[in-house]
TrEMBL record:
This is RRM domain-containing protein. One of its GO terms (molecular function) is RNA binding. Residues 1-22, 59-102, 194-218, 341-369 are annotated as: Disordered. SUPFAM superfamilies: RNA-binding domain, RBD. Signal peptide: none annotated. The lineage of its organism: Eukaryota, Fungi, Dikarya, Basidiomycota, Wallemiomycotina. Residues 103-190 form the RRM domain. GO terms for cellular component: U2 snRNP; U2-type spliceosomal complex.
């Protein structure tokens, strides 16, 4: 294509403006026009200034207005290619699953003669255990190269929430009450076995439709079992944890004897403080009451939420306190307990009893001095 500017030097109406580095034409009316290389014609300087002002007003950040249409098209096509690649990457990232939920606990310090059924019974108090291929609880006992039990086990739950509850209730406790040993419970970490597990899974053949239906049916049954766990608890705690739990008060029995209180009046305060400190490891405690007129040694612990109350029931049930086996359950709102400080229709203490108690307390103080 010919260069139209090659003859401008011979045209007396046209001059080259060094400040603008462009050709300028003066028409017959004395108006100046500037050469526009894109349209290949002279344009009024007034029009050019207005156009530049308009472009500045409506300019889009990142867009080069000096680019030709061909450049813009090429740039858009390049952007589409980049976006396509980026979208594929995002899609792949979205398809990548996050870390699997941690539904298993690792247990150490188990007695050498422990059985899977015994472990399942204890840990089943904290949630529904995942079944194995044979239908039994998914509990694995670890053995050394000689086949000897190492005192370690893996317990797999159906829900992740059961893991934290199991750690809270069973860590550093006795598997068998009174044997003096304690177990440690922690979240199972499968990082070391991830590669092996993936290799095993890659070797598995695809499930048939019948196998898929059986698997779906199994998980439906687990969901039903989980929903009915409170009311159909197989560990024998159904009477301890009602299906619709709202109570935040836990009743503890056999925590003391009346003779112990009579011998040491300060036991009342010490025992309340000890129980509060122990219960606060489970959740926020709002009140602890010791009923000093109850032959069964009754205490109540009130929590700020009912979940902590349930955990307290599981923690205290069956524990030995001062040689006595503790009984724990959620308060049903119907029972009344006797206390020397509280008068109700069930109270049997009289003013004379209270006066006698105060006199005994005074004598105890004088003896201590």
């Amino acid at each position: 294509m010919d260069d139209p500017t090659k003859d401008f030097a011979n045209d007396p109406r046209v001059s080259f403006d060094k400040s603008k580095q462009n050709w300028v034409l003066e028409d017959d009316n004395g108006n100046e026009l500037e050469w526009d290389s894109r349209s290949r014609r002279f344009i009024s300087l007034v029009g050019i200034d207005e156009m530049k002002a308009q472009q500045a007003t409506y300019s889009i950040q990142g867009v080069d207005e000096s680019k030709t249409p061909a450049d813009v098209i090429a740039r858009r096509q390049e952007k589409k290619r980049k976006d396509y690649t980026s979208n594929n990457t995002n899609t792949e990232n979205k398809k990548q699953k996050g870390p699997p939920p941690k539904t298993a606990v690792f247990v150490t310090g188990l007695p050498p003669d422990v059985s899977i059924d015994e472990i399942a019974e204890v840990f089943g108090k904290c949630g529904v255990l995942l079944p194995n291929d044979e239908g039994g609880p998914k509990v694995k006992l670890y053995r050394d190269d000689q086949g000897n039990f190492k005192g370690e086990a893996l317990v797999v739950y159906y829900k992740e929430a059961s893991v934290s509850l199991a750690i809270q209730l069973l860590d550093d406790t006795e598997l068998r009450y009174g044997d003096g040993s304690s177990i440690r419970v922690s979240v199972a970490d499968f990082k070391a076995d991830t590669a092996n597990e993936q290799t095993k899974q890659s070797k598995h053949k695809p499930l048939t439709e019948d196998e898929k239906r059986k698997k779906q049916s199994k998980f439906r049954k687990l969901d039903e079992k989980l929903n009915d766990w409170d009311s159909e608890d197989e560990s024998g705690l159904a009477d301890k944890l009602p299906s619709k739990v709202t109570s935040r008060v836990v009743v503890l029995k056999h925590m003391f004897s009346l003779d112990e209180l009579k011998e040491d009046p300060t036991l009342l305060l010490d025992l309340k403080e000890d129980v509060r400190e122990d219960a606060e490891q489970i959740g926020q405690v709002t009140n602890v009451v010791l009923y000093d007129a109850e032959p069964e040694g009754v205490m109540t612990v009130k929590f700020s939420d009912h979940i902590a109350a349930q955990a307290c029931v599981l923690k205290y049930e069956g524990r030995f306190f001062g040689g006595r086996r503790v009984v724990s359950y959620l308060y049903d709102g119907k029972e009344s307990f006797k206390s020397s400080q509280t008068a109700n229709k069930y109270a049997e203490t009289t003013d004379q009893d209270e006066e006698q108690r105060l006199n005994e307390f005074g004598k105890w103080l004088e003896k201590d001095d």
